[in-house]
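hiii, so i know i said id send this last week but things got crazy w the move. better late than never?? heres the sequnce for the chain we talked about at the cafe, plus the structure i predicted for it. fair warning i was half asleep when i ran it
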Amino acid sequence: MNQADSASIKQVDLPFSNGLMSARTWKTNDRHVAAVPELGLHCYGETEQAVCFKLFTVLLKYYKQLKANESSISDKGREHLQLLCAWVEGIERRMMTPRIERENVIPLGRRR
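okay and structure toks below
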């Protein structure tokens, strides 16, 4: 990549990664590219939004593959799995509803 190309690389926040993983996007010729350098993953697409969504789904698929084959993966695969486990746990924490005190909840069937 030459100096002109490196200036067009954008750092993109990877949701729920807590800074453990970063994502970068850039455009080369007529294709957009998104990458997670810590994992060596790259995705290609026609728009930046499409390629970012594709990267998100690829990360989830890669996590599932590593998790399913955990007993037979290499040390590098284990490092990737650790990063992805922390990332998925962040997603799961954000999707959970906060604990609600029972006394603050009003039943729907209760009349005044």
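btw The radius of gyration is 20 Å. thought thatd interest u
miss u guys!!
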